[in-house]
Request: fold
Amino acid sequence: DAGVIQSPRHEVTEMGQEVTLRCKPISGHNSLFWYRQTMMRGLELLIYFNNNVPIDDSGMPEDRFSAKMPNASFSTLKIQPSEPRDSAVYFCASSRGAANEKLFFGSGTQLSVL
Amino acid sequence: TQLLEQSPQFLSIQEGENLTVYCNSSSVFSSLQWYRQEPGEGPVLLVTVVTGGEVKKLKRLTFQFGDARKDSSLHITAAQPGDTGLYLCAPQRGSARQLTFGSGTQLTVLP
Reply:
C-alpha cells in the first residue's frame, strides 16, 4: 500500500519566490496534517483538515502561509513570498480521523530558502 | 498552556546498554503516543498508551504511562545501532485529533 506521498522531496529557492508543497494522503484517511520541523522548534503543527475542511490553522506562522485541500486525495501548502527563516522540513501526515488514531507521515520536503 | 518536556535531549550509548527516556508534563492526558524518527524520514508510531499505569512492551522496548497520566517513559533493553533515532512523545487531550509533539530525545547507539 502506498503511504503518504509528498513532493518535491527537496526544494531550494530564493527569498521572495513562491513555494508550493504537495501531499497525497493515504486513501480512506479523513484527517490531514501539515507539520514543520526545525532544530530550534522541533515538530510544529501548522494546520489540520478533517474531511477536506480546515479545522485548526492556529499554527500557521503568518499570512504568507496558506494551505488547501480541494479533495480527499490532495493538499497543498503554499508560502508566498518565502523567506530564509522558512527553511525547514515540512511533513504531511494523515489518519483515519478518530482520537488516538495513528498518524502516518510522509518522508517530508526539505525546503531551503536562500 | 501545557508544558511538555522530553529528557534527555541527547543520549549516546554503546551497543548492549540499557536506557530510559522520559516525557513529562504538567497536564493530564487522555492518551500518549511514542514515535521514532530516522534521518530523512517522517516519524513512525511505536505505541499508544491510554490507561494510567499501563505498561506495553514491543520487543526490547517497554513503554509506561504514569498513574496520573501526566508522564511516560520508554525503556530500551540491550540497545542496538538500529535503535538510533529521534524518539518523540505526543500526548493527546480529550478527543482532539491533532497531536502536539515533544522536542524529542536524539538517541545514538554506537556499535
Summary: The CA atoms of residues 63 and 80 of chain A lie 9 Å apart.
